[in-house]
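Complex 337.
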Amino acid sequence: MPEFTPRVFSGIQPSGGLTLGNYLGAMKRFVELQNAGTHETVYCIVDLHAITVWQDPAELAKATRELCAGYIASGIDPEQSVLFHQSKVAEHVQLAWIFNCVARMGWMQRMTQFKDKAGKNAENASLGLFAYPALMAADILVYHATHVPVGEDQKQHLELTRDIAVKFNHDFEVEFFPVTESVIEGAATRVMSLRDGSKKMSKSDQSDMSRINMTDSADAIAKKIRKARTDPEPLPSDLAGLDGRPEARNLVNIFAALADSAPEAVIKDYAGQQFSAFKPALADLAVSRLSPISAEMARLMEDPAEIDRILDRGAERARAIAAPILKRTYEIAGMVG
Ligand code: TYM
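Predicted structure with tryptophanyl-5'AMP bound:
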């Protein structure tokens, strides 16, 4: 394999608002990788993914700008990282078509997220929802990204991305696409619902009490944590004591991720304590970390024209990387130039 430039790519859908799961599992990690300075970092607002389920157009536009504000408020520097929205860089969809022809039906049919999202009504799901993971592979590989930070729920899609890269390289007898590494690290790779420790925290959950939104007020955050489901036992003295206690484990993981600490350290500090003591400490920590971000998001949203300028400039920089890679892909596949 040739040497690829160390490059991080990741994306978030502008559907609904950002949740604490998105922040801890993805956004916060994106900022850490940007600041580590070891990789080029490319971060995307994946609006074309969002429309695989119905989106009100005005809401989508607002959510796109709000997510851009969320990236910046969380610490993404649009000069240091490339920050843009997917629909502005046509190379993503152009490469996705090639990948639709590389990926096999059997691979796509195994994708659990499609099954979860389409539910019992799969016949009525959009073709886009089914093809979505091939577009995701294109998002990543059109930048020759080597590392992709995501939450646990995206792992299968990243394995598919690797399969697509390997099959393309094999079929065309090239070493053109890198076999991307997923980066699923930290205390909060799978933040669970505050109402049910067996379900992922998600923007699509019916109950707003199940999640913390990045735009929630301090009072709302405190209330949701106070009301989070737990069990009657005090916190254990070691991690093994969290086995079979998914709600307790979730709150400990959230605490650790917000505090830039580790679950072991949190357990040590709170061993033997009741949730009546732990929850207020967690609420204070969450408010102190999240409120400055939501305040900054609100400030940035007052100037949507500036957000659009940032996104346009980001798209130009993204295209400068993607266009030559797409051009070479089409040549490899035999498209007359
Ligand atoms: P999306 O928009 O659902 O979520 C964005 C990121 O947030 C992570 N995440 C979580 N992490 C921990 N706990 C949770 N409860 C939680 N909920 C969400 C997700 O794992 C993700 O990292 N298909 C992607 C978007 C995408 C993408 C890409 C990602 C499109 N193209 C290319 C990486 C590379 C998605 O729907 O993420």
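The radius of gyration is 21 Å.
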